Amino acid sequence: MSFRADRARRSRDTDGRGERRDDRARDRGGERSGPGSGPRPRSLRLLTPARAGGLLGMLAAGLLLRLVLSSAVFAVERVDQPDLRWTGRDAVLAMIDVPPGTNIFGIEVAPIEARLAAIPGIASAHVSVALPGSLVVSIVEREAILAWRVGGTDYLVDRAGALFATSDPAAAAAASLPVVVDDRVASPLTLAVGVSLDPVDLDVSTRLAALTPADIGSTASHLVVQINDTDGYVIGTEPATWSAVFGFYSPSLRATDLIPGQVQLLRSLLATRESTVDRIILADARNGTYTLKPTPKPTKKP
Description:
Elements: H1 3-13, H2 21-29, H3 49-70, E1 78-80, H4 89-96, H5 109-117, E2 122-130, E3 134-141, E4 146-150, E5 153-157, E6 163-167, H6 169-174, E7 179-182, H7 187-190, H8 199-209, E8 223-228, E9 232-237, E10 243-247, H9 259-270, E11 277-282, E12 288-292
Parallel strand pairs: 1-3, 4-7, 7-8, 10-11
Antiparallel strand pairs: 2-3, 4-5, 5-6, 8-9, 9-10, 11-12
């Protein structure tokens, strides 16, 4: 055999690195290249103690969770909620809507908090569970700053101008809330719980309702704020002795900044004539007119 033929045979049997092809194939595939060769048997992986312990732990946790969720020990037995001033207890319970006996671990508090916050008289709510079977409800109620009277209904108004509840006059008086009597024709049709006052009405009413008889130098026992379609805002006394017309306000034509000056003008007009004046019209901070009470006619002697 020539040198060149022998070299070609060696190249076919090796991969260029001096290793035989059949040896490398045997090493890669784990198989013998000879006759009768087959795959090497793989060793079985046995369940180790660590794996067995983990499996038992998972089974125990699942069983424990099932027992907790089905146990009567953790059933809701009571609902702890604060006593609210303006929002009825029944209305709160209806929004909580968790029947007695419900397992506390199955209760989702976020939907309950959302339902409670939808009540107009509630500013915010927080719900939590307490073992073994209590539902704890914390509520921040809206603060009433005045009562807005429309017909026979008193609406409670908060600082943002929201009408968040109704109240009877006795409760509003017990809370020392100033009252604004709204005699406008459209008010019974437009105002209701959940509606907000016009910002101008809120501004004017809070300014005027905060006045006391001493602020204007009056001897009256009580002041009453009214609004109607003819005169706008009016302050009167109770019992009725005189009235003062403050008028209508709007951001562009007649701003509420006039009110402090009007109050000072009213005070000066009442200083020497409160017992005789009947009606005062406060055009602005410097101009006002008034009418006097009719002079009683002398009685004729028999």
